[in-house]
Design brief:
Layout lengths: L17 H23 L5 E4 L4 E4 L6 H22 L5 H4 L5 E5 L6 E3 L2 E5 H4 L4 H11 L15 H5 L3 H15 L19 H9 L2 H6 L16 H23 L1 H13 L4 H9 L3 H11 L3
Helix pairs in contact: 2-5, 5-7, 7-10, 8-10, 10-11, 11-12
Length: 296
């Protein structure tokens, strides 16, 4: 998952059906309560300082040696992700020297909030590639004063955000980097690896859950209950978004996609305008060509 702001009550939730708003609102608030609980008990957790980050490991999650090995692997993952994206943590904007990572089961699903990265221990201990996904969000995170990050973003800007880009790109980079880091695929939503992304996307396009979320891929917004109903909504949305991003990246190059991500979430333009300006091709054309490649 991405940084929290635009999942917030003040964000796209206002455009959803009331039932979906309530469910995702409750899920978000539970995560925020968990964050506060984790942060308030930092002194009770194992702490590991490295060159690029601070890692806090919650009580009972990992024993000393295993925790240190995880910390060392996390440091390597952060460095590799920064090298691949050609981006470093923006300490100036966030006013801290380096980010803090929390390996815990008290803050909900893995996510980024400001300079803090919360990693769900139950999933990440066995699938550390998930940390790469979250590190992509961390390193490409926008200026905290950007319109799409403000507590009350103008509705027209919120409504024109391309969420498929946010999650699809982070998934794409994580899947690409995992084997280079000696990590198994995270298998959070993708069952295979980089070689199976498109086949899995095709399978979702033939299934009802995939048909329900594909209107949000290559367009605006994101499907209702993405937070509240992770089991049914998140897998098809993430896999289809990753396939779409992979399709564009193969034709434009990674630096173009990094620029698109940063400028879109740091700016005010619609996703359609940003894609047109940066890739020089209409978003609708990209989407049509991707669906054709998928056999639709």
């Amino acid at each position: 998952m991405s940084y929290l702001k635009w999942w917030s009550v003040a964000a796209l939730l206002c455009a959803w059906p009331v039932a979906a708003q309530d469910a995702d609102d409750d899920a978000l608030n539970a995560m925020l309560r968990g964050e506060r609980d984790v942060i308030s008990t930092e002194s009770e957790q194992q702490r590991f300082d490295s060159k690029h980050l601070i890692l806090y490991v919650d009580q009972g999650v990992l024993a000393g040696d295993a925790a240190r090995r995880f910390a060392n692997q996390l440091e390597r993952s952060v460095v590799a992700t920064a090298d691949r994206l050609r981006r470093t943590f923006d300490s100036k904007h966030f006013r801290v020297a380096k980010p803090s990572y929390y390996l815990t089961d008290r803050a909900g699903i893995s996510h980024v909030n400001g300079s803090r990265v919360f990693l769900r221990a139950a999933r990440v201990v066995d699938s550390p590639a998930i940390a790469v996904h979250e590190t992509v969000h961390l390193l490409l995170q926008v200026d905290p004063a950007a319109p799409r990050v403000l507590p009350e973003t103008p509705p027209d800007i919120e409504a024109s955000t391309g969420v498929w880009l946010l999650e699809g790109f982070a998934s794409h980079v994580a899947t690409e980097l995992a084997p280079r880091l000696g990590l198994a695929p995270d298998h959070l939503f993708l069952k295979g690896d980089a070689s199976t992304v498109d086949a899995e996307a095709r399978a979702w396009l033939d299934a009802e859950p995939g048909k329900a979320v594909v209107p949000y891929v290559g367009s605006r917004g994101y499907p209702p209950s993405l937070l509240a109903d992770r089991v049914n909504v998140a897998p098809p949305f993430y896999v289809l978004s990753q396939s779409f991003v992979k399709f564009i990246t193969a034709r434009t190059g990674l630096p173009v996609m990094v620029r698109l991500y940063v400028e879109h979430f740091n700016g005010r333009a619609t996703i359609e305008d940003d894609v047109r300006r940066i890739t020089r091709i209409e978003l609708a054309q990209w989407r049509a060509e991707w669906l054709k490649a998928m056999g639709e």
